[in-house]
From TrEMBL:
The keyword ATP-binding applies. Pfam families: GAF, HATPase_c_2, PAS_8, sCache_3_2, SpoIIE. It comes from the Bacteria. The keyword Transferase applies. SUPFAM superfamilies: ATPase domain of HSP90 chaperone/DNA topoisomerase II/histidine kinase, GAF domain-like, PP2C-like, PYP-like sensor domain (PAS domain), Sensory domain-like. The chain crosses the membrane at residues 17-38, 177-196. This is SpoIIE family protein phosphatase/ATP-binding protein. Keywords: ATP-binding, Cell membrane, Hydrolase, Kinase, Membrane, Nucleotide-binding, Phosphoprotein, Transferase, Transmembrane, Transmembrane helix, Two-component regulatory system. Residues 215-255 form the PAS domain. It is a multi-pass membrane protein.
């Protein structure tokens, strides 16, 4: 209360503000109440008009109203309806009358038959009319609506009315509540004004307008008279006040006050400091040709608006300090940029180039990097070996320095030689006076000095105990020589680059090892065979090595197996796993197994590999290994395929049409538990079978279905030869290096014609052996292979005799003339013969031994109905 009395007493600014606020609030409350009353009245009248008109029109247009008016006793029909409608619509009356205004209905029955009081002429003319009158029941609003026959003639009138008291009663009952709320608002506003005035009293110290004006004039005179810039900035960064000295020192525009400090054209550092409001003590900023010492403090104290006050002093004696600070900041920026910009790739040469590009022209006019040759290939540096100029950057291109690619041997007396020998940086402040450097190459040294290069820093590239090379920084344009501070900066810069170069060297070594391993595991040359004309492509991934592989494997009976596989992942582990799987496929194919059985054995092998590696070192299993195995028989032109999680093959028919055969997709290798299925295709001669890995049709940017569509389109326009097909597919696919390996095989089928195949059935009679020998002799004579008659007869005699003795019927013999002469004996037994050494007392057991000695290769392959024993002899 004491504070309130102090506010109300006297002629202070606070008292005037309090009274002004109270009067304004009072006027606003009175205006609000008056406006509310007027609005309520207007809304009440409008609501009455709308409701009465709506009820009258509804009743007039209701079904049966016209018929009731034309009835003998309209009152008997309409009175109950009107009263029911009145009660439901909450109006005070509904009156139905004839065109003369005689009432048929009324809430009071004694008024029925009397003339209606109101305006009827518009309604008789066919228009609705609403009017506000004072009737027997008080002020009311009534509407008169015509009742029209179907031909448009007015046959009666309907009037509905409601008193304004019934409509506006609710608003009238709410008026006391509104007035109470207004009173409360007035009390609260008065209390708030008192609090505001009390705070204003503290701020103005109880001064009146004249005293405050006089004090402001004195303060303003002092503020602009001092020779130190003063600025006041609010917490939003808006300049509130700047004295004359601040305008002069900062070059502020005349309308600076009231604008944001960032829009005043100040240098970025000064503007950022003023806008941030942070505390600063003698912080030096360069503004034009001045060095300003800036002090800034916040004004966040009790009773003071938030913001900051900054003072400026022109400190020309701090120029040297500012120069050193600028140099230090530039060096820190350079070191930061070195950490970000050097080593962006795992390439030794590119990393060296990034170092020279960063140093020129910020630190030196020319910069060179010389590395040992072994470092470029990922090996250990040899101190006795020559160096190769790996990178060179300069402000000009005509400097007489060793060019990139030049092999250099630095003499021990040269700065580079001393750096390499001692492992320490060397500073040659005056290059023309350094005799040890000139001994390197007197002619080139003279050209360098004549060119204007006068100062040199050499720093060894050290990674731990290894010296990878040397970096040289040359100065030409700036007349001052390098100093010891710059030597320390160069050493730090090169140290950061050395880590990146060593990482790139290690990566190059490991990558080369992985690539060498991978290439050694892939086929270098395809085996010779006549069943398929084959072309292939293998493209490694953009980074690292992968696990894609392929093979072409000749089988017995002139058949050929094609295999394509993929071990998902990159690196040595994937390449080594690929080699193990490829070796396993080679071994399994020698067993002449069907594709599904071979894939099953491969699946079991991958499962064992996973189990062994997980038990030994907890490494990740070989997840994602896939394989497709196909066997083509040129005699029957059948191709049998099976796949384990691999993309389906593509088939190009001789007419150029392309399809993807439906080969059952088994699970990826290593999952186990599920059988694999085969698909058998009958291929016309000249068909092209296309096998590939998923890197050809799938990547991170598109789905495999899109890739298959693109492959189909490329195959449809490929040339006839497998080479043309490979070229067309890869040209359509590889717009850039792939992120995954790609293996592609295109095989065009050939058929072994009937004139190169001879086949005879063998009766179950030992005497049939002689007949077979005679038939074979005739066939060999026809083929011009008389030289092979004796050995072939002996081989077939032994094989047919074994089939008759140990096998089962039916038995038949087939002889194929391919790159080799192939003899095959079919029987229905599944018992495999075994090669053994017979003793001197044995009567038999030498048959297969003779076959093995006479034939180049021999073996057994199993079929669903028996087995085939085959032997191959080279053609003369």
């Amino acid at each position: 209360m004491a504070g309130l009395r102090s506010v109300l007493g006297g002629r202070s600014v606070a008292r005037q503000v309090f009274l002004l606020v109270v009067v304004i609030v009072l006027l606003l409350v009175v205006a609000a109440v008056v406006a509310l009353v007027l609005q309520v009245r207007h809304d009440t009248t409008q609501e009455a008009r709308n409701r009465s008109l709506a009820v009258a029109e509804t009743f007039a247009n209701a079904p049966g109203t016209i018929e009731a008016l034309e009835s003998p006793d309209p009152t008997a029909v309409l009175q109950p309806r009107a009263e029911a409608a009145r009660e439901q619509s909450k109006v005070d009356f509904i009156v139905v009358m004839n065109t003369d205004g005689i009432r048929y209905t009324h809430p009071r029955p004694d008024r029925i038959g009397k003339k209606f009081v109101g305006t009827l002429a518009p309604a008789l003319a066919g228009r609705s009319v609403t009017e506000q009158i004072t009737g027997t029941i008080g002020p009311l609003v009534q509407a008169v609506v015509p009742v029209k026959a179907p031909d448009g003639e007015v046959v009666g009138l309907v009037s509905a009315g409601i008193t304004t008291a019934n409509v506006g009663g609710t608003a009238d009952r709410q008026l006391p509540l509104v007035l109470s709320a207004a009173a409360v608002a007035l009390i609260l506003a008065t209390a708030g004004a008192a609090l505001v005035s009390r705070r204003l009293m503290r701020q103005t110290h109880g001064l009146g307008p004249h005293e405050m004006t006089r004090m402001y004039e004195h303060h303003d005179a002092v503020l602009h008279a001092v020779r130190e810039g003063v600025l006041i900035v609010d917490d939003g960064g808006t300049l509130l006040l700047a004295n004359d000295e601040a305008h002069r020192l900062l070059g502020l525009p005349a309308d600076a006050e009231g604008r944001h400090v960032l829009s005043l054209g100040l240098d970025p550092g000064t503007a950022e400091l003023l806008a941030s409001g942070r505390v600063a003590t003698d912080e030096v900023h360069r503004v034009g040709d001045r060095l300003l010492a800036v002090n800034q403090r916040t004004t966040d104290r009790a009773g003071v608006p938030p913001g900051s006050v900054a003072t400026l002093r022109d400190s020309t004696e701090l120029r040297a300090l500012s120069g050193r600070a600028e140099t230090a900041r530039e060096r820190l920026n350079m070191l930061y940029d070195a950490g970000v910009g050097i080593g962006t790739s795992l390439d030794v040469t590119r990393t060296a180039e990034e170092l020279t590009e960063l140093a020129v022209p910020r630190f030196a006019d020319f910069a060179t990097v010389d590395l040992f040759d072994a470092v470029l290939s990922g090996g250990q540096p040899d101190a006795a070996a020559a160096l190769s100029r790996t990178a060179l950057s300069g402000i000009r291109k005509d400097a007489p320095l060793y060019p990139v690619g030049e092999r250099i041997r630095f003499v021990e007396s040269s700065p580079q030689g001393r750096s390499l020998g001692t492992g320490r940086p060397v500073l040659e402040a005056r290059l023309g006076e350094a005799p040890g450097w000139q001994a390197q190459d007197s002619e080139r040294s003279a050209q360098v000095v004549e060119y204007g290069i006068h100062s040199l820093i050499t720093v060894p590239l050290r990674a731990g105990s290894l010296v990878l090379g040397v970096v040289s920084f040359w100065r030409c344009e700036k007349p001052e020589p390098f100093d010891t501070d710059e030597l320390a900066l160069a050493e730090e810069l090169v140290a950061r680059a050395a880590v990146s170069i060593d990482n790139a060297r290690r990566y190059t070594r490991e990558h080369s090892m992985a690539v060498t391993l991978q290439r050694s595991l892939l086929p270098r040359n395809l085996p010779e065979q006549d069943a398929l004309e084959i072309a292939y492509r293998y493209l490694p991934a953009q980074a690292g090595v992968g696990g894609d592989w392929f093979d072409v494997l000749p089988l017995s009976g002139a058949r050929v197996a094609l295999v394509v596989g993929d071990v998902v992942g990159h690196g040595l582990h994937a390449a080594a796993t690929m080699g193990r799987l490829r070796t396993a496929v080679h071994n399994f194919s020698a067993l002449d197994l069907p594709p599904d059985e071979l894939i099953a054995l491969l699946d079991e092998l991958v499962g064992r590999i996973d189990q062994d590696e997980t038990e030994e070192d907890g490494s990740a299993p070989v997840t994602g290994a896939t394989c497709l195995y196909a066997v083509y028989d040129p005699v029957t032109r059948r191709c049998t395929l099976a796949r384990a999680g691999h993309p389906p093959p593509a088939l190009i028919h001789p007419d150029g049409s392309v399809e993807f055969p439906d080969v059952p997709a088994g699970p990826p290798l290593g999952l186990g538990g599920l059988p694999f299925e085969t698909a058998e295709l009958q291929l016309a001669e000249g068909s092209r079978l296309v096998l590939y890995t998923d890197g050809l049709v799938e990547d991170r940017e598109r789905d495999i279905d899109v890739g298959l569509d693109m492959l189909r389109e490329a195959l449809s326009r490929a040339g006839q030869s497998p080479e043309d097909t490979c070229r067309t597919v890869l040209d359509a696919r590889l717009t850039a290096r792939s992120s995954d390996d790609i293996a592609l095989i295109v095989a065009r089928t050939r058929a072994l014609t009937a004139d190169r195949v001879a086949e005879w059935p063998v009766p179950a009679d030992p005497a049939a052996v002689g007949e077979v020998r005679a038939a074979v002799s005739r066939q060999l004579a026809e083929w011009g292979l008389d030289e092979l008659t004796f050995t072939t007869e002996l081989i077939l005699s032994e094989l047919v005799t074994n089939a008759l003795r140990y096998g089962g019927g039916p038995i038949h013999v087939r002889v194929l003339r391919d790159r080799n002469l192939i003899c095959e004996v079919f029987d229905s037994s599944s018992t495999s013969p075994h090669l053994r050494y017979a003793t001197m007392t044995d009567e038999g057991g030498r048959g297969l031994f003779l076959v093995a000695q006479l034939a180049e290769r021999w073996g057994t392959r199993y079929m669903p109905a028996g087995k085939v024993i085959w032997a191959e002899q080279p053609l003369p």
